[in-house]
Amino acid sequence: MPPSGRLIVGLGNPGAEYDGTRHNVGFEVIDRLSEKTGVAVEKFGSNALFGSGSFRGRKIALAKPTTYVNRSGSAVNAILGKNRMTARQLLVVVDDLNLPVGKIRLRARGGDGGHNGLADLIDRLRTDEFARLRIGIGSDFRRGGQSDYVLSPFDPDEMPAVEAAYDKAVDAILVYVRDGIEKAMNRANR
Questions:
Q1: Eight-class DSSP state of 59
Q2: Residue 134 — pLDDT band, cuts 50, 70, 90?
Q3: Residues 6+ apart with CB under 8 A from 37
Q4: What mean pLDDT comes out for the span 28-52?
Q5: 2 falls in which pLDDT band (50, 70, 90)?
Q6: Top-level CATH class of 6-188?
Q7: Burial of 84 by CB count in 10 Å (0-12 exposed, 13-18 middle, 19+ buried)?
Q8: Residue 76: pLDDT over 60
Q9: Could you please report the per-residue DSSP string of 40-107?
Q10: Are 93 and 29 a contacting pair, CB within 8 Å?
Q11: Residue 161 confidence (pLDDT)
Q12: Rounded to an integer, what distance in angstroms lies between the CA atom of residue 155 and that of residue 21?
């Protein structure tokens, strides 16, 4: 893919046992983007599922690292390198314990916010100059229960908010691909 494209990466854990868990919201958004854009996401080496194509005249690539959330940096770095792209062309979709269930927030750059997957990306890419879209998963867990919480499914009463967040995330990402980060942030963060 030429340098003019955008790479959208959703973080998550591989395997059916993680489908529908809070930690896998990034994978879910990539699946929905794939369906909406017609860009098929298939195997990319041993570390990711990947696909590229175009949507409304814009080049777009979608990826789901299969290295588990907290070790996503090496896979994303390899995808960027193979496609001659830079971190500035990257948008990462992650879960966020600090946002209420169903809330999304898009930023052009920033720190890891305590997210180990983002920390690994920043470390491997040697920059925090990439966009990230955070999807709120809430923080309703007992002290010491964070790991179990992020690996648990959403409660049925949370699903309407989660579905709305997925729709809003896909919409914001397509604005990002088409019109850039500023317009996408205006759409996502209102």
A1: E
A2: very high
A3: 53, 55, 60, 62, 174
A4: 93
A5: very low
A6: alpha beta
A7: exposed
A8: yes
A9: --EEETTTEEEEEEEETTEEEEEEEESS-GGG-HHHHHHHHHHTT--GGGEEEEEEETTS-TT-EEEE
A10: yes
A11: 98
A12: 10
